[in-house]
Amino acid sequence: MTQPTTIRAEHLHTALSLAASGVPVLPLRAGKVPFGNCTRCANNACGGRPNMKTPGPCACPAPCHAWSAATTDPNVVGSGVWRRAWRCASAVAYHPGGAGLTVVDLDDADAIAWARANLPATQTVPTTRGEHWLYFGAMQSANAVRPGVDIKSTMAYARWLGFGSGTMAHLPDAVRALAVQKPATPRSAPQPLTVPTRARGGECPHRTPTYLDRGIAMAEQRIAQATSAVHATVYRTFLAVLSTHGRCGCLTEAHTARLFTAAQAKGETARHCTDAWTNALTRLGL
Q1: In this structure, are residues 152 and 141 in contact, taking their beta carbons and an 8 Å threshold?
Q2: Percent above pLDDT 90 for the chain
Q3: Pair 181, 141: CB distance under 8 Å
Q4: Cβ atoms of 187 and 261 closer than 8 Å
Q5: Rounded to an integer, what is the distance from CA 110 to the centroid of its chain?
Q6: Strands (DSSP E) along 158-266, which ranges?
Q7: CA dist 1 to 4, 6, 7, 92, 154, Å?
Q8: Can you spell out the DSSP letters for 189-200?
Q9: Handedness of CA 150, 155, 158, 164 (dihedral sign)
Q10: Are 154 and 140 in contact (CB under 8 A)?
């Protein structure tokens, strides 16, 4: 009866040690799925993505799902809702990109053989079915870049499975190139609109630029992961961004360009992006 408690205590100790070394961590429940890390989202009541593997459109003070919940703050890791989560956690996860790392996730023997023939040797961690190859340097995450090969870095999480063996190498161009996908047809450059200025007498409620940047990153991810109804997803995402950040004047053309680029990468035209943005502004009275 004491074994589960010992295992959970070990997870918490591991998480605190990693956080102290600058690696953002989070607890995982069975099935390698993150918890909802605040009381409001504990049972997915906020409408997060299926199995809460990606951040949902919650109204919490800060993003609290999946990779966006990973933190190095010991007061978060070891107390509050997280402390309750550790009682039934099945594993520790971390945000590689937040630690300045990239994980090449190799799912089977064929993928491992390909990596040994094409990638520089680096720190290697055994997994249930394959290996994690760890490199210094962060990059865009991407799934299924080759059969049995995923890349986990920014906006992704990976299970912590120990330090493995070998010396960690710097992220090579060969890995970066795996995430580059050429568009099927040429697309025009994004055409962002001028963002409304700060409302009179209003104060920015977003506290830090990091909060806004994280919101834009979450919006980009939501668009990138759309598998159907892309038009509707783009519009709803624009609407969500503007409803949160459109009234205080914090949004810039650089932010809108990021959103338009994400939409055009899914096949949307510049005209549709402009129309969706305009419609969202109109609906919100901006």
Answers
A1: yes
A2: 28
A3: no
A4: no
A5: 27
A6: 158-159, 169-170
A7: 7, 10, 11, 22, 39
A8: PP-PPPPPPPPT
A9: positive
A10: yes
Which residues neighbour 68 within 8 Å (Cβ) at sequence distance 6 or greater? Answer: 55, 155, 214, 218
| CA atoms within a 13 Å half-sphere pointing along the CA-CB vector of 180 | 6
pLDDT at position 201:
39
**Token reading at 49:** 């993505």
Residue pointed to by tokens 């007498």 = 201
Q: Is 49 exposed, middle or buried (0-12, 13-18, 19+ CB in 10 A)?
A: middle
How many CB atoms are located within 10 Å of the residue 164 CB?
Answer: 16
Q: Look-up: residue for tokens 């700060």? A: 198
Task: Beginning with the edge strand found earlier in the chain, give each strand of the sheet holding 25-29 in spatial order.
Answer: 33-34, 25-29, 91-94, 158-159
125 beta partners: 132
Q: Report pLDDT digits (tens) over 4-53.
A: 444 467 888 999 999 999 999 988 877 777 776 555 555 555 544 434 44
26 vs 148: CA distance, rounded Å: 25
The tokens for 226 are 């759309």
